[in-house]
Amino acid sequence: MNETTKRLVQLIFLTDKEALHLEQVAQRLEQKLPKPAAELENALKNPELIDTLESFSAKFSRLQDTLADKLLPTFLSLAGEKTGTVIENLNRAETLSLITNTQDWLIARNLRNKLVHECIEDYNELKEAIELAQVFTRQLIDTQKAIKNYSFNHLKLSL
Known about the structure:
Elements: H1 3-32, H2 40-43, H3 47-78, H4 86-95, H5 102-111, H6 123-153
């Protein structure tokens, strides 16, 4: 097994854990988050909700970064694809049906700043950002699974 293959296997296992942790914290956040945005200001006085939101934000950003900056370029290289900028790599991933939409990915990458609730004074905007991040969470996890499945089924990756 060459170094690139070893690196891909390591990154798949790493992103398996990151995806699991993100999914778990997303579920906890959904349970704790009040439905009406008007109640969010009051709810954010609860340190447990703040901790959960910060954990979600960190895990959302971490998985996104690992997928786009590490796993995807390593995967593309091993698949014989040309690697380039993040946007170019995402476009190649879309062509291979590993992601559904490059523009959604770029929106998700820009969303992380909005998740830091201290930066948003409008609680409707914060609520929208959290809800959008929860939608993108599913896309991140689906991307990780797609790359993993493609690697094992088409690249004949083995453990």
